[in-house]
Amino acid sequence: MNQDPFKEYIRESEPDKRDKGYAWHTAIGLQAVDGLKTSEYLVHTAVRNIEGEISFEEANALLYDYYEENPARNASDRTEEADKVSVRIAELLSEKAFSFTPNQYLSIHRKLFNGIYPHAGCIRDYNITKKEWVLDGATVLYGSATELRATLDYDFSEERKFSYQNLSMDEIIRHLAVFISKLWQIHVFEEGNTRTTAVFFIKYLKTLGFDVTNDIFAENAWYFRNALVRANYNDLKNGTHETTEFLEVFLRNLLLDENHPLHNRTLHISGTFKKVKKPDIGELKPDIGELKPDIGELFHPKTARHILKLREAFPGQEIFGRSDVMKVIDIKASRASEFLKELVKHEVIVPVSGHGKGKYRFR
Asked: Where's the Fido domain (predicted)?
């Protein structure tokens, strides 16, 4: 979102507008976990809903009409999916009803992806792997397809029996981090697993008495997903072990209004991206959301996401080359060269030396 129209609503004194503003802001922000971006039309529709001009049902109908009249619009970048899932997430987050059961979890997936995925609400029947940037191309070991329902039932049963009584907030947050990371790692669904898990988790947190109407999920959805990945990955021979420390930091910001920095580069297993060059006196480290020119308007959403990853990996005036781009974004040499040329053309980066195989930095 280029100009965030929801923050003023989150700060609204009127509870209904505040809650809807939070729900929409979170719904749209969560699309980032799958590299998706919503349309401007969706944002305008959301504002109308927050202002009370239209209901969620009417917002859904408007979106369906919009894409029926424009069937080819944004078909290649899944914007239609992002828009439709966003309005459904916003509606679910605005509802008070919730039950802590495996069926509720499956029901959320069905509601979010009905008509989008043929397997909406269904447990996957095959094993999966996914290359992760934060794991340098490795994958988490997800739940076995033959044991998914049993594993899901067991995790819910254990959480239902757990008592939070007399625990400190540190202990509560640590337990919540373990619970949600294990639920996510089962990976019950073929697609849409993280978005479903996030919606379920937010609604569960509300039943535990937490007021989560802030912008942490909306603005750090990608960090949330990478933290879930790190909580479920071991490579002991290379000194990497699963850890919930990153999830705990995320939850402290979410639940306790703390202000810990949430940078994706700190989660990368190589540790390469943790080394941030100290800026010169007077040099301000640019925020990832302040890249100029506006990448959201100039580039395809997938390309924009690649730029954000690269910007996080090389903040300030850090120098990088084609091989760095290949590693961070996981693309081939030819595509990395084209990518760099495109960024130079639009003045997002500037060459420091050479071209193609040269060195660059962000403006």
From this structure: 100-252
Q: Which residues of the chain have pLDDT under 50?
A: 1-2, 274-293
User: What per-residue confidence (pLDDT) applies to 313?
Assistant: 85
Strands lying side by side in the sheet with 320-321 = 320-321, 359-362, 349-353
**Concatenated DSSP letters for 212-262?**
--SSHHHH-HHHHHHHHHHTT--BGGGTB----HHHHHHHHHHHH------
Determine the Cα–Cα distance for residues 167 and 315; give it in Å rounded to an integer: 39
Nearest to 325 by CA among 317, 131, 338, 316: 338
Question: Hey, how many other C-beta atoms are within 10 angstroms of the C-beta on 98?
Answer: 15
Distance between CA atoms of 359 and 194, rounded to whole angstroms?
A: 36
Q: Which tens digit of pLDDT belongs to each residue from 170-193?
A: 999 999 999 999 999 999 999 999
**pLDDT tens digits, one per residue of 36-63:** 889 999 999 999 999 999 999 999 999 9
Which domains does the chain carry? 1-95 (no CATH), 98-274 (1.10.3290.10), 276-362 (1.10.10.10)
* Residue 331: Cβ-neighbour burial (10 angstroms; 0-12, 13-18, 19+): middle
Return d(Cα 336, Cα 356) in angstroms, integer. Answer: 8
The answer to whether 56 and 122 are in contact (CB under 8 A) is no
Residue 22 is predicted with a pLDDT of 93
Tokens of 11: 């700060």
Residue in 203, 231, 220 with CA at minimum distance from that of residue 263: 220
For 183, other C-beta atoms within 10 Å of its C-beta total: 24
| Contact between 91 and 46 (Cβ < 8 Å) | no
Residue 106, both tokens: 């499956």
pLDDT at 289 (0 to 100): 44
C-alpha angle 149/152/154, rounded to 5°?
110
- The pLDDT value recorded for residue 361 is 83
* Neighbouring C-beta atoms of residue 307, cutoff 10 Å: 24
